[in-house]
Each structure stands twice: as structure tokens, then as C-alpha cells.
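Field log, afternoon session.

UNIT: design team B
ACTIVITY: writing a sequence onto a fixed backbone
BACKBONE:
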């Protein structure tokens, strides 16, 4: 049996970590969960131990934890903490090949009647291929992977990525029971309006 060291830790989000080093099991639980019911804390410890020992996670514990962290109150706390603690490096919307602000404004006028307030637009600091782009509501920014800032990338591909993230801006993540609904029906229907949707998806798949 290893020695256990457990602490609440000021993560920038609702994160929980576990690691085993030299027979010492170190668990860090987000300090946002300090006031959580004992049943939720038990669920967290069960999930962490199951992960490190590669054992099945009990659906009961998984559901209890997911419901608690997805609650309206916890979502608000997490959002606020990310704004306060989270550090985000913003580079520039003007790339070597494409200007993200110009693309946003053009798409906004064409598909959203110019009604979306433009968030901070920026290229990523690294050429990530596993993340095309993302909209971060805590920092109100849209980040697109720098790998697409290249003359060899068709403009419609960059436009599709920005358009997709603009839909996230228009359709925030909602909770349905204990599950997060990231791409609701309205989101999917509007995404189909993009004229070169299939071409863009095919290009990204090849990439």
C-alpha cells in the first residue's frame, strides 16, 4: 500500500490529477471542489485510482461527478476562475497568408447578418495538427492552428475552421441532464450551410 498525499490545488480549471512515484501516491484535487459533498469526493478518488490502476470506472461514480461539475453553479465558478487564473498567450490575427479578423468579419456579414461581436482572433503559437481551432468563452477568443497559415492551404479551409468556431460562439455548450451538448441540432444545421463543407472536411482529413 503506497503512502497517500492528498491536497486541494489552485488549478486554472476543475482539474484533478494523480501520480505514483517511489511508492507515494500524490492526488491533487481542484480547490473549486473543497465544498463538494463527501459522495462527490469519494467519486473523484474512485475515478483517479481506477485510472492509475487501469481499472473500470463505476458508472455511478462517473455520473455523480459529472453531474456535480456540470451544475450551473460549478460552471459559473469554473468560468470565473479560468478568467482570473488562466494565462493565455495571444499572438496576432494577421498571419503570413491569412488575416483571421478579415475572415471573421466577412463570414459575419455573409452568414450572421453582422450580429456576432468579434472575439479576440489569433493564430496559435505552435503548428498543432491535433487541434484545428477552438473558441474559448472564458477568454472570449478564437484560436486557429498556425499550421493553416500557409499559402498552400485553400482559403475555404481556413474560412470553414473560423465558421465552425463562430457557431460555437453563437451556440454555447448546454447541459442535457449530466451531459454536455457541444454540437446541438441547431449547430449542425447551420454548419451544413457552409458552401464548401465537404471539400473542407475532405482536405482536413487528408491533412
Amino acid at each position: 500500500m503506497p503512502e497517500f498525499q492528498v491536497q486541494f490545488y489552485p488549478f486554472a480549471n476543475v482539474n484533478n490529477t494523480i501520480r505514483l512515484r517511489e511508492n507515494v501516491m500524490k492526488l491533487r484535487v481542484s480547490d473549486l471542489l473543497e465544498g463538494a459533498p463527501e459522495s462527490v469526493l469519494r467519486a473523484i478518488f474512485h475515478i483517479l485510482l481506477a485510472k492509475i490502476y487501469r481499472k473500470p470506472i463505476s458508472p455511478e461514480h462517473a455520473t455523480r461527478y459529472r453531474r456535480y461539475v456540470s451544475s450551473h453553479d460549478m460552471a459559473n465558478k469554473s468560468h470565473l476562475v479560468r478568467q482570473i487564473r488562466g494565462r493565455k498567450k495571444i499572438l496576432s490575427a494577421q498571419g503570413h497568408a491569412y488575416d483571421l479578423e478579415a475572415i471573421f468579419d466577412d463570414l459575419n456579414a455573409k452568414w450572421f447578418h453582422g450580429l456576432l461581436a468579434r472575439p479576440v482572433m489569433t493564430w496559435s503559437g505552435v503548428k498543432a495538427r491535433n487541434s484545428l481551432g477552438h473558441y474559448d468563452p472564458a477568454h472570449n477568443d478564437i484560436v486557429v492552428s498556425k499550421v493553416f497559415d500557409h499559402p498552400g492551404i485553400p482559403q475555404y479551409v481556413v474560412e470553414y475552421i473560423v465558421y465552425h468556431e463562430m457557431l460555437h460562439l453563437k451556440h454555447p455548450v448546454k447541459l442535457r441532464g449530466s451531459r454536455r451538448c457541444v454540437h446541438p441540432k441547431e449547430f449542425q444545421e447551420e454548419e451544413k450551410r457552409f458552401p464548401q463543407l465537404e471539400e473542407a472536411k475532405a482536405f482536413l482529413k487528408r491533412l
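LOG NOTE: The chain has a mean pLDDT of 88.
NEXT ACTIVITY: expression trials, pending approval
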